[in-house]
Design brief:
Layout: H1 2-15, H2 17-22, H3 32-45, H4 48-63, H5 67-93, H6 95-98, H7 101-119, H8 124-131, H9 139-147
Length: 171
Amino acid sequence: YAVCIMLIGLLIFQFFPNVLLDLFRSEQDTGDMLTIGVPALRIISLSFLLAGYSVVCSSVFQALGHGVLSLVVSVVRQLMVLLPVAFLLSRIGGLAVVWWAFPIAELFSVGGLTGVVWIDPRSPETVATRRWDLLALTAGGCRALEQRGLVCACGTLLVPGDCGETVLQLT
């Protein structure tokens, strides 16, 4: 659902940036906000679909007990990619191109998250990709997964360590 919601946001930002910016425009504005804001919203919104994927992956990491990994990916995206790329683009092309730092940072984030899935074969996302079981993280879904011997479920949440040594068992 996250990617679908972000797709709707992408379409709104691509086709109606003037309407969105008019919500924040003052009567004294000479039009500079629209001149700067319309291209900015259109460029930044290109990263929305990638951001949806990143948010879902980060949430899955956190839900399955890999919160530190989620934090590392977020910090790398923000501090080690977004800020330096924005700085370099501002020096190269000024304000007109600095907005491209957002899609570039999202590409790195998606690449990092996807790389983690492929590097660690025991990663929760690998199991989820194979089984599509992350869509069923409700109480009923957890019981169904537990019956198939895939996860150890406790109530409505998957809690690492509460039901035994291993939360996920690869099959």
